[in-house]
DNA sequence: AACTCATATCGTCATTTCGTGAAATCGTGT
DNA sequence: ACACGATTTCACGAAATGACGATATGAGTT
């Protein structure tokens, strides 16, 4: 075996954490996230309307946030509802803190 | 006054947190950060050499990480030493968590 | 003051990201 | 099967980012 107990800290953030950071490192996507405060559930169209952006733009931002582990999606009939993924967000923050603990 | 006690959570991450995220949302800069594990102190030239990148590139990455609150710099004679800024990193993580708490 | 070393800044180019409209896809109802 | 409404995917130009070499600045030495 390579390592016995707990790895001190990965040499670089894993893919999942890296995508989490990239997803959040955008003012536009940060604004998207605030729409989901309080556990609200919004469709792609609603997000597009509230932020006054194109629907395809909203779809792509939401997809990236979902890929980054910040949102989950649920399909009801034709409309797709997005919602903040509390669990994965917490996990990502923990991994981020673990990585940074290894750096200072 | 506008708000009395504690703001529940800013509508969008403040400038400082946004810069923190942008600084960290880059594989190259993540690799830079791991060099500072264990509190090591490195000069610009050492960083450039260890990562096999140009000197000006290293200088710019370090500047951006410093701007994002991840590093501090200290000048000794001609050489500038960078080091992880444990305190500001912790503060940034706390602000990030506070912002995300407002989103889920 | 002239010289040298380490770092920072500038100008440039290649790559990536962002936002948009057009077209394709998916799920539903007729 | 067809049509529809909502979303996703695609292709494109515009803007931001990343890396480099060349040049400028800062600090110390002779």
TrEMBL record, chains A, B:
Name by which UniProt lists this protein: Helix-turn-helix transcriptional regulator
Domain HTH arsR-type as annotated: residue spans: 9-104
Coiled-coil blocks: none
Any GO MF annotation of the entry: DNA-binding transcription factor activity
Keywords: DNA-binding, Transcription, Transcription regulation
Keyword Lipoprotein assigned: no
């Amino acid at each position: 075996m390579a390592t016995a107990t707990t790895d001190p800290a990965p040499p670089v953030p894993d893919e999942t954490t890296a995508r989490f950071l990239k997803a959040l490192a955008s003012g536009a996507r940060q604004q998207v996230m605030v729409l989901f405060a309080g556990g609200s559930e919004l469709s792609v169209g609603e997000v597009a309307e509230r932020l006054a952006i194109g629907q395809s733009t909203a779809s792509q931002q939401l997809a990236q946030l979902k890929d980054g582990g910040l949102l989950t999606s649920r399909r009801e009939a034709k409309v797709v509802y997005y919602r903040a993924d509390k669990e994965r967000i917490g996990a990502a923050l923990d991994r981020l803190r673990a990585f940074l603990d290894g750096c200072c």
